[in-house]
Design a protein that fits this description.
about 60% strand; single chain; 7 strands; mainly beta; about 80 residues; 4-stranded mixed beta sheet; 3-stranded antiparallel beta sheet
Length: about 80
């Protein structure tokens, strides 16, 4: 996670459909401090993608849920 004045940036890798399109991702905000992102997988041919997720919010999110996996976000000072 990279933090800046505007929010957080998450860079990760995930196996998605080889012909993945942006319409296959949905996001929701179930409460003030949680954002949930789900990727729809339609076929068995998968490819590894590098994903960048920018979250611009105040107050900061404390939980990021990616495909059901919960990531607890905590700011770390250098």
């Amino acid at each position: 996670m990279n933090s800046n004045l505007n929010g957080e940036r998450f860079e990760l890798q995930s196996c998605l459909d080889a012909d993945f399109k942006k319409e296959q991702v949905t996001s929701s905000q179930p409460n003030d401090t949680t954002v949930s992102i789900k990727f729809e997988r339609k076929n068995s041919q998968q490819a590894l993608y590098k994903l960048t997720i920018d979250l611009d919010a105040y107050p900061r999110y404390s939980l990021l849920v990616l495909d059901g996996d919960t990531i607890h976000m905590k700011r770390v000072e250098p």
